[in-house]
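Service request form, structural biology core

Requester: graduate student, group of Dr. S.
Request type: structure prediction, single chain
Budget code: on file
Notes: please return the result as structure tokens.

Sequence provided:
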Amino acid sequence: MKMRIFQPFSLLLHLHEMKISANLNSNPPIFFTLLSVSSKRFSSLSASSNPTIVEYLTQTLGFPQTLATSISNRFRRPKSAENPELVVHFLRDIGFSEDQIRTTVRVAPQILFANIDKILKPKLQFLQQLGLVGADLGKFISYNSTVLNVSLEKKLIPCIEILKKTLSDSESNGDLVRVLRGCAWMLSRNPNFLLSNIEFLESCGIVGSQLSMLLMRQPRLFASKQSTLKDLVSRVVDMGFSIESRMFVHALYTISCLNDKTIRKKFELFQSQGFTEQECIEMFKRAPALLRASEEKLKLGMEFYMNTIKFERTLLVHRPTILMNSIKDRVIPRYRVLQILKSKRLLKKEPSFFKVLDLTDGEFLDKFISRFPDDAEELLVGYKGHILQEVDE
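Core staff response, request fulfilled:
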């Protein structure tokens, strides 16, 4: 007799098949009993344990059945619709729209069972005092409803006070509200966490108005892990910035917005136009925002300045900010006007194109168009020709 040798997995599979075969021959079949139990269990999981809440969510708030069931199943014990009704009426009374209420409930359904007088009202009144009222409050909470789950005394109030002090905001709290709209989740952080990050940034020389600017532009930095913050600062320092430089904060903001791959691609774009790596760094040090411009904008700018106007590469290295100007809406129109004036010999002295680009629209019109009434129509066509062409199309 030939002995069968099973590998571990094959042996388990063989035993499993033997067990099923035996179960099928039993009376009653155990296999089908197990299937029946599993089916009943699945049915119980898919059904709601809070049918009253499902009915309220579907009939009153207009939730789809599946979503209402999913929300109701988050609450293990059966709940009545009494408190949800009170909460919804309360939110309507303070200016929430129906869509805002639905969004708020979908994200943080536990507020339906929160105590209005002890939990919801104090927090919402606090936010109202900051300037978030009516529809603005409803919009803010609908996007950041988890704020209502945060302790008022331990987190909301201390965090808000820290942010207000950092912003040196006016009584209107306009800057504070803008920060909260962009990064409300920082209110769930431990206040000491925020303070620690602020102290670190101040140790890097980012203080006063620079700190306020950074908070308004990139609030998530203040809620990041300090290890992340230190890594960003190190990257900026490695690129040649001194913490004593007034451009340091702008470089930190730019680096925090971009990943390494994007920065590398921007450098490669400049190098493809003949710039050295050191020249790229020099340009970034003079204009940190340069790396936030799109590749298309940078490429168009370099091609126009170097190929059409015939600027030397070194000029762009020393004045990289001109690459931030819109080629279509600012650079080319002004260049066309100057070309018309030169062709008519209306200029006693050719102006620096750098200075021409620095002029406001009003200053440019006064200096290079209004001064020449006999040629004003032709100059205006040259200046706004791209707009007229778009209208005709």
